Every structure is written in structure tokens, then in C-alpha cells.
Q: What sequence folds into this?
């Protein structure tokens, strides 16, 4: 006796198959969204003392460049659903954007020129915490800079270029005017 096995696939499964395949690959972000993201990073870029400097109030050699961007609709939904927490996803735009320091001028209160090692190679920003209120939460990002000398007051500027996947770039000149008497900003 010979049996024939017939396979029947639900139309719903056929419709869901392309979506399942798409979810396994890296998400693509259109150029307009990427440019908006880069604009947010540049608009919100600032410098801050470290928490150690705030606590000790002693001459320091480190500070942070910090920036932020508003959570996307999907991130905001997840943030609210999870009671104010957000799971990090390697495919998030923030994890794929790099920065490079294009130039800087930094002087301390003694009018000494301060420097820091710069490889000249792109690097990734570090994810910091979620800031803002429940209505407008932002993801904070940043990097720590270690200088060759200590400062009590630090003035100057840093030129930073952010590069998004696909090659979109945006440059920002970040003013530096911090003191060990300041408080940590976001």
C-alpha cells in the first residue's frame, strides 16, 4: 500500500515567513532617521566632570563627553512596559554609531595645554543611563577622556565627528568650560 503525504501550509505562515527572516538580519534605518539621530547627538553633546571628581573635589585628569537622544517609539514602549528599564540590543543605532576626535584645544587654570592620547581611529560610544522624565526619556551616551595633566578648571573645545552605519557623518564643536566645583551633568 502506498501513502501520499500532502503538506499544507497555512497562508498565515506564508505571510509571516518574510517577517521572520527580516527580523533575523540587522535592521536597516533610513537616511532621514539616521540624520535625525546624528543631529540629536550633536545638538546634545556637552562635557561633564566625572562622579569621582564631584565627590572628591580634587584636581582631576578625567572628564566625560556626554550626549543623548530621545528613545524611539519601540524603545519607549519597551521602557514603559518594563517599568522604566530598557534591554540593550546590539542592533540599536546607538551601538553602531562611532566617533572620532578631529581636533581639540584644552587649557587648565595654569594656562597649560592639556592633551590626551588619540588613536585617530573610530571608536564606539558607551551607553550610559536613561535620563529625563517618564514623558521624555533619553538614552545617554558618552566617552571618558583622560588628560596628560590635572585640572581644576578646564577650558577650550573638542571637535568630534559621529559616523552612522551607511556612512552618514556629522561633526560638532563641543565647548569645554568645566571646573572641579561643578556637578555631574546627566
A:
Amino acid at each position: 500500500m502506498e501513502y501520499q503525504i500532502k503538506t499544507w501550509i497555512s497562508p498565515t505562515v506564508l505571510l509571516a515567513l518574510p517577517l521572520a527572516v527580516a527580523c533575523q538580519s540587522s535592521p536597516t534605518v533610513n537616511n532621514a532617521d539616521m540624520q535625525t539621530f546624528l543631529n540629536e547627538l550633536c545638538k546634545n553633546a556637552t562635557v561633564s566632570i566625572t562622579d569621582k571628581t564631584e565627590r572628591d573635589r580634587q584636581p582631576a585628569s578625567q572628564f566625560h563627553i556626554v550626549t543623548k537622544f530621545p528613545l524611539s517609539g519601540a524603545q519607549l514602549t519597551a521602557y514603559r512596559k518594563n517599568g522604566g528599564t530598557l534591554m540593550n540590543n546590539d542592533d540599536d543605532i546607538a551601538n553602531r554609531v562611532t566617533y572620532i576626535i578631529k581636533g581639540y584645544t584644552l587649557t587648565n587654570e595654569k594656562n597649560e595645554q592639556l592633551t590626551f592620547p588619540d588613536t585617530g581611529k573610530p571608536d564606539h560610544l558607551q551607553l550610559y543611563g536613561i535620563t529625563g522624565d517618564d514623558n521624555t526619556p533619553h538614552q545617554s551616551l558618552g566617552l571618558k577622556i583622560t588628560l596628560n595633566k590635572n585640572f581644576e578648571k578646564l577650558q577650550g573645545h573638542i571637535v568630534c565627528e559621529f559616523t552612522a552605519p551607511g556612512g552618514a557623518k556629522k561633526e560638532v564643536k563641543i565647548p569645554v568650560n568645566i571646573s572641579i566645583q561643578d556637578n555631574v551633568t546627566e
Notes: Residues 1-27 have pLDDT under 50 and may be disordered.
